[in-house]
Write a structure and sequence with these properties.
Number of helices: 13
Shape: globular
Oligomer: single chain
Bound molecules: zinc ion
CATH topology of the largest domain: Aminopeptidase
CATH superfamily of the largest domain: Zn peptidases
Low-confidence stretches: 13-20, 426-462
CATH class of the largest domain: Alpha Beta
Largest sheet: 8 strands, mixed
Strand order of the largest sheet: 1-2-4-3-5-10-6-9
Distance between the termini: 82 Å
Number of strands: 18
Number of domains: 2
CATH architecture of the largest domain: 3-Layer(aba) Sandwich
Radius of gyration: 24 Å
Structural class: alpha/beta
Amino acid sequence: MSDLVSIFLQLLLFKLVAPVTFRHHRYDDLVRTLYKVHNECPHVTRVYSIGRSVKGRHLYVLEFSDYPGIHEPLEPEVKYVGNMHGNEVLGRELLLQLSEFLCEEFRNGNQRIVRLVEGTRIHILPSMNPDGYEVAAASQNRDISGYLVGRNNANGVDLNRNFPDLNTYIYYNEKNGGPNHHLPLPDNWKNQVEPETQAVIQWIRSFNFVLSANLHGGAVVANYPYDKSLEHRVRGFRRTANTPTPDDTLFQKLAKVYSYAHGWMHQGWNCGDYFPDGITNGASWYSLSKGMQDFNYLHTNCFEITLELSCDKFPRQEELQREWLSNREALIQFLEEVHQGIKGMVRDENYNNLADAVISVSGINHDVTSGDHGDYFRLLLPGTYTVTATAPTFDPETVSVTVGPGEPKLVNFQLKRSTPPAAPKRRGPNSGHRGRVLPKKVQPRAARKKEMMVKQSQRVPA
Ligand SMILES: [Zn+2]
């Protein structure tokens, strides 16, 4: 056999047995890949489903953690969501690549990845819209070039316009007073949203997520809240305007971490658009109602940004490796961003954990709450802050804390039960608080919700 033939045969053999790592994954292939990663890294992964699509496909999540399935206090939860628009497929493939990468590097003892997995609980939902994806993928095979084919779910609904609109209430509250966080859902919300949206809402309510990104395509830019413009309803020229959250500087930094770690996003010129630093406030680009990122911020403790990752919504298979290499570092760095600011436990005098305690930072009109285990996470840029923890029937506790650029600062709170309003003869050592009216923020959550509902139904302008 000549050398040439031998080389040819070897190449052929290699081609036959080598895994086609960079390819588009249809639903069955996606499920197989998630379980394959789990089988390769069984001790640090878990596959679970958060619900089903209209057509009954599971919305599978792959979790990475040193204790899969368990929330460890003070270990933050982060998530990535891909393929919410079924025809925007790069995020789906990148998240599968990321899953394989995390598993492989963990097994190889890559210290950075080991530290990340041991200190963070990472949830990866590669496809929020598996039905739309199948439609989009089928149209690719038939070479139908419909830009929007497969964008919506099987009921024809755009899932990123399907979340309850809480912006109207927060814009009202920011102006007139009222809760600045955890705005309640409308009573009949389940009837107003699609199955995929319902599954995601239940998911993000059942974990205390701190940081998240939602992966899209059609542009290359890191987009941060708010998505819905405050001036959207104004008739005239300014239909949309920069609409910052109280955490605007932090969101800009989070977006820049992604854009600058990405191969070319930070350059700004992409797909015929220009975004300085490769980032944009959502509303200043175009106003969008009922989106997922605003919902995360207004209803939960989670800070979410939206990543637009490719001009071509359905890139050719040959592009996938280059895209992975230009996003890999950014995807890792963004996860690492959850480790900044302050975190800690909120407990009572007997060391019982206090869930739903409110953590306020003076100067930032957006509070976060402690999770079921009494731990809280407050992302903050370096600086000195006055931080207050409050809980119903407890005295507030305020501390001054200086946050550096590195690891989050541990700030625990131990709240003292406030003395109930009592008759003068029963005055005790804490009598200074006698008869004190609790500030609005420490009203029990149920009472706050009730108050909000009244506000929503009666006082918000249409
Ligand atoms: Zn999209």
